[in-house]
Design goal:
It is a single chain. The protein has 232 residues and is mostly helical. It contains eleven helices and two strands, in the order αααββαααααααα. The protein has a two-stranded antiparallel ribbon. InterPro entries: GntR_C (IPR011711), TF_FadR/GntR_C (IPR008920), Tscrpt_reg_HTH_GntR (IPR000524), WH-like_DNA-bd_sf (IPR036388), WH_DNA-bd_sf (IPR036390). Keywords: DNA-binding, Transcription, Transcription regulation. This is FadR/GntR family transcriptional regulator.
């Protein structure tokens, strides 16, 4: 979101979501007068919102053509807002599949490095993260713990580029977690994460990598099971 940016931020969010969801398809022309009426804002607010969206690669303006939606291939797909809008859109399932592939590349390597480079402080932070999940933990608590665990694990890798991947993973992981952990299920959450932590604590890079791959495989199975139940 755009905290503190008021109406301007709300209009950026609304138009951005329309574009990402396909309501305003690539190539379509945006009616600026219509946007003013729809969101009950001034022409200035609409123009400023479109400048933000243009910087993200979503829209462009040309003489005689007006303001139009650019092809998806020209969007700044790694922009944090764009990632969030895509994962939250009804069509975000395909992006979750892409996220899984990225995670299988990044996180096992991150776990391996963390096992070799972690400090006692890293171990304490990872341990505290899992300890925060108990028998009465709800969905939101599990989601926040999961995000924190994966973030802190990448931080323990001491690789700046891997650490920067966290914002991509975290945005998609939140959407995935809300789907899978919607009813809590801390029993499903803790064992695979504890296995990763145990290997990191033992300074076992091979074991940490294996444990992370097993965690990701289980996560994919859980997600598929939820999807299958939704189709029944």
């Amino acid at each position: 979101m755009y905290p503190g940016r008021g109406v301007h931020g709300q209009v950026v969010e609304a138009i951005g979501r329309r574009i990402v969801s396909g309501e305003d398809a690539p190539g379509s022309t945006l009616n600026l007068d219509g946007l003013e009426v729809t969101y009950d804002v001034s022409k200035t607010v609409v123009r400023e919102a479109l400048k933000v969206l243009a910087a993200k690669g979503l829209v462009d303006a040309r003489p005689k053509r007006g303001t139009f939606v650019r092809p998806r291939s020209e969007w700044s797909l790694l922009d944090p807002d764009l990632l969030r809008w895509q994962f939250e859109a009804p069509t975000g399932g395909g992006l979750l599949d892409d996220l899984y592939e990225v995670r299988t590349i990044v996180e096992p390597a991150g776990a391996r490095l963390a096992a070799a480079r972690r400090t006692d402080e890293d171990l304490a932070r990872l341990t505290d993260t899992l300890a925060a999940v108990g028998p009465d933990s709800g969905a939101q608590e599990i989601v926040e713990a999961d995000l924190a665990f994966h973030r802190r694990l990448l931080e323990a890798s001491r690789n700046e580029l891997l650490i920067r991947m966290e914002y991509i993973i975290e945005i998609g992981l939140r959407a995935r977690d809300l789907l899978v952990h919607g009813e809590g299920h801390q029993d499903d959450f803790l064992p695979p994460h504890q296995a990763v932590l145990d290997a990191v604590r033992a300074s076992d890079p091979d074991g940490a990598e294996r444990a992370m791959r097993a965690l990701l495989e289980q996560a994919a199975k859980d997600e598929q099971a939820i999807k299958n139940r939704g189709r029944q």
